[in-house]
Amino acid sequence: MKEVDTATLARAWESGAAVLDVREDYEYAEAHVPRATWIPLGELPARVAEIPSGEIVYVICASGNRSKHGAQIVEAAGREAVSVAGGTSAWLRAGHPVERGLAA
């Protein structure tokens, strides 16, 4: 399982890459990468079919621990995934854009 930094995610995100946020609802609502798909890690095995295939999926959590496990789940389902080191905390520290609130 590959891991990338938030600068790599930012470049990919600007190009429209798929981002998967695996945090809990209260964490996601606080701040998340715009356009991120939200599937809590505990629900991911049952919902992996919702993740786009044919492109790299950037899996993010709060600090980078849960995203490693999430990326492994995505890869086990036959999709290419990478974990974002430092997670949303690093994304925020770097000053990248965020959205707040839960998905509609």
TrEMBL record:
<dbReference type="InterPro" id="IPR036873">
    <property type="entry name" value="Rhodanese-like_dom_sf"/>
</dbReference>
<dbReference type="InterPro" id="IPR001763">
    <property type="entry name" value="Rhodanese-like_dom"/>
</dbReference>
<protein>
    <submittedName>
        <fullName>Rhodanese-like domain-containing protein</fullName>
    </submittedName>
</protein>
<feature type="domain" description="Rhodanese">
    <location>
        <begin position="16"/>
        <end position="100"/>
    </location>
</feature>
<dbReference type="Pfam" id="PF00581">
    <property type="entry name" value="Rhodanese"/>
</dbReference>
<dbReference type="InterPro" id="IPR050229">
    <property type="entry name" value="GlpE_sulfurtransferase"/>
</dbReference>
